[in-house]
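Our consortium's second objective concerns turning raw sequence data into structural hypotheses that experimental partners can test. To show how far this objective has progressed, the report includes one record in full. It was chosen at random from the queue rather than selected for favorable results. The single chain below, 103 residues long, was entered without modification.
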Amino acid sequence: MAEPPIRLARLAPLVVAAARDAADPVALAILDEAADQLTETVRALSPGPGERVVATGGLLGPDGPLTDRLETRLRALGLTLDWVPDGCRGAVALARLAHGGRT
């Protein structure tokens, strides 16, 4: 954990492969912890029931190793997980809203 996050991220494919191919209990626990951390991040935003959470990226894509785990946790909070292939549109919409514009 002393490494910068970008250097730690290079280990993600190894963890995913160990979880998928060997059902390695340590790798599975790492994925569960990652989903727990993401859930806590969302919870810190105080979303209301029925709100949608948008995710993008390889770990949270349609076949990503965190998608089902996070979706289950968010569903328990009354939230829906949506995946998008590119977060640019959402970023632009949020920037417009922040400056009083419409999406």
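The partners drew two points from this record. The mean pLDDT is 90. Residues 75 and 87 are 22 Å apart (CA to CA). Both points have been shared with the crystallography group to help prioritize constructs.
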